[in-house]
Amino acid sequence: MHISASVSAAARTQSRRPGLPRASEAPPVAAPKAPAPPLRLRFVLLLVGAVWGIWSAYPRMMAALHLHDRAVAIADYGLCMVGPTGPTLIRDRASDFEHLVRRRLIASAPTDKPFHRCGKLALAVTGGVEIERIHNLSAADFREYSGRGVSLAELGVSAAPLAQLCSDAWPFARGGYTQLMKSSLGAVEAAHVPSPPRPSLGRGLPAKSGLYRSVWREGTGFGLALGAGSDTALFTTGDRGISFRALPQRSDLLEAHAERCASPDGRKVYRLTPREDGGAEQVLFSLEGAEPATSELAPSSERVLGVSCDERSLLALTAERERLHLRLCPFGGRCGELALPANVISASAGAVDVAKLKGTVVLSVAQDGVVRVISSRDEGRSFTPAVVAFDAAEYPELALSRRAPVRLLALGERLLLLGGPVKGNDSYPVLASDDQGVSFRAP
């Protein structure tokens, strides 16, 4: 009894101890350890997407930067080439831009380099060294100026590539490239070249003007004797040279005005006459109350194309085969040869004319439908830059059926630039200058 009671008491005591399983209970089994959570797929996808976005956006970002730089450079180029309207025209109206580029070229002297300052901009836009070289050429090296050489189309700069560059820069250039084409501060700006004046249409003069052009006052207008010998014709104008009408071949008028060149007041008269041995052409000077004097003008091998005079001297244009000569004969003095301006040296005989008024020597020369006028205020020792008086490309409807106005005629203080009619009583273009050939306008 005592032993069993002790065993039961011990059993009770053991059952009260914490953590000890009861005899009837099995020991607990430990739960398995949970595995580490796996890397989520969406984070991988996000990382891949970010890398791809950066990789694909980088060239577009660079294209946007290039677009901005290129647009500004082209705007600066347009400003440099044709002046204030250049950026807008090269962007929106390429044909008008090219027209102004040609106008600037035509208005230059043969040795000028009109696009030289724009060469670096052309290189920055195109990356072409050859294009930069073409921009550094002289005006006479272009086909549009002299009929030979490179063409203006080879300048090779336009806004057309900006469209593709803008597409490559999307979405960083959503507004298009037109808003970006603004010239930079300090950009070189060319002077605007105005268009040559549109001529009026005149009537009444023949196609050939002949050697002499003798002008005198006839009432409120002017009388005009053209040619020599049997080709002499008399005309009069009452509207300062826009229209002429023929005068009857009266003997008194022929004797007083034909076959001579006279000063505006009629006192000083110049005539051409051959030397006695026939070896040269001479100028005979006549003045009321004075003995006539002579001076040798040119050898007989030269053909006299035209003469003009004022109270100071006679100006004569002659040709020996393909070579032109310009000579000035002071009244009563010795004739001397003048150096021809660069625009005239290579011109053909029928494309040059001369005039002399108020001490000013004036030359006109036509080349490929462009008529330029050069003048001298110091009796031919130096000449002003050429002025473009007429350009057939500006007025093609006039050039198709009429000759370019290259003939010069001084009426008092007005200088006319005339184009002879093609036939009969056809009209012809007429331009007028009231400043001795500095500028021309429609009369």
Task: Provide a descriptive summary of the structure in words.
The chain has 443 residues and is of the alpha+beta class. It folds into two domains: 54-180, no CATH class; 200-433, Neuraminidase. The protein has helices at residues 2-16, 41-82, 86-92, 94-106, 119-126, 129-135, 143-146, 161-168, 251-257, 342-345, 396-399; strands at 200-202, 213-218, 221-226, 233-237, 245-246, 261-262, 268-274, 280-287, 293-299, 303-309, 313-320, 323-330, 336-338, 352-357, 360-367, 370-376, 387-391, 407-411, 414-418, 428-433. The strands form five sheets. The chain has a four-stranded antiparallel sheet with strand order 1-20-19-18, with no helix packed on it. The chain is elongated. It starts with a helix and ends in a 10-residue tail after the last strand. The relative contact order is 0.09.
